[in-house]
Amino acid sequence: MSNSLLAHLWLIPTVPLVAALLILSLSNARRTGAAVVAIAGQVIALILSLVAFWPTVQTPAYRAWQNFTWFTFGEQVLRIGFVLDPLAATMLVMITLVSLCIFVFSIGYMATDQNFTRFFAYLSFFSAAMLGVVIANSLLFLFVCWELVGLASYLLIGFWIHKPSAAAAAKKAFITTRIGDIGFFLGILWVYDRSGTLLFYDGGNGALEHSGLLSLGASATFIALLIFCGAVGKSGQFPLHVWLPDAMEGPTPVSALI
Predict the structure, then answer these.
(1) Residue 108, Cβ neighbours under 10 Å: how many?
(2) Helix, strand or coil for residue 121?
(3) What is the pTM of this model?
(4) What would the pLDDT profile of 159-194 be if each residue is shown by its tens digit?
(5) CA nearest neighbour of 87 among 186, 198, 188, 200
(6) What is the C-alpha end-to-end distance of the chain, expressed in Å?
(7) What is the pLDDT of residue 3?
(8) Phi/psi of residue 202, each to 5°?
(9) Alpha helices in 136-163 (DSSP H)
């Protein structure tokens, strides 16, 4: 991948995010416009994902990243970035393709719903958050996108908020997954304390590179388990599985997307 294209990898999650904001600015009467904007956002994101996927097919063990300073406070500098490797590229294509299919299905499924436009805004927001998780080259940036996925899940599970069961299901999902995310956050803090960085790859100095892994030492196993707590919550694994059955209170496309 050219440096120029890598520098614009951020466009993949940004396109559906912009689509979500545009849809939110539309009135409920602009149903066709909302669907067109949402699907167009997914199509563009899918095309960009396919472009990003191509060099990972051509080059074995392909990996490229770009980091930059997000903000500084005192002597501390927080850097985030984007990474592209075969796994990330495959997930980009899968997320955008599956989301596009769900978006198209939702046109018919939600055709009679009075909040049709808002639903497509939430779907686009969910897609953007997931894509952000995939390309993150920093535990900090990944955690931000991870929490946005949680927010999107809350909004979609509780989409029919006028139903007490839907409102309760959304709250249950949000609180339960936050329990797992506490472990995730503690793991992030531990990584930063031991390695001094939250970047995955940084020219040999990243947390997943040789020097970073050496700095974690024997604590690496416990850090991995803490970070895994976040995945346990989001994927509905025991013992944080209790929210998943209630997620069916949201519209059917939500269950498919989750």
Answers:
(1) 8
(2) helix
(3) 0.93
(4) 998 899 999 999 999 999 999 999 999 999 999 999
(5) 200
(6) 30
(7) 60
(8) -155, 55
(9) 139-157
At residue 2, does pLDDT exceed 60?
no
For tokens 């006028």, name the residue: 162
Contacts of 166 (CB under 8 A, 6+ apart): 157, 158, 159, 160, 249, 250
> pLDDT-based confidence at 1, cuts 50/70/90?
very low
pLDDT exceeds 70 at position 247? yes
Please name the residue that has the structure tokens 């890598």: 6
* Tokens standing for residue 33: 């416009």
Q: Is the pLDDT of residue 143 over 70?
A: yes
Run of H or E including 79: strand 76-84
Closest alpha carbon to 69 in 215, 198, 216: 198
Compute the distance between CA of residue 143 and CA of residue 33 in angstroms, rounded to an integer.
32
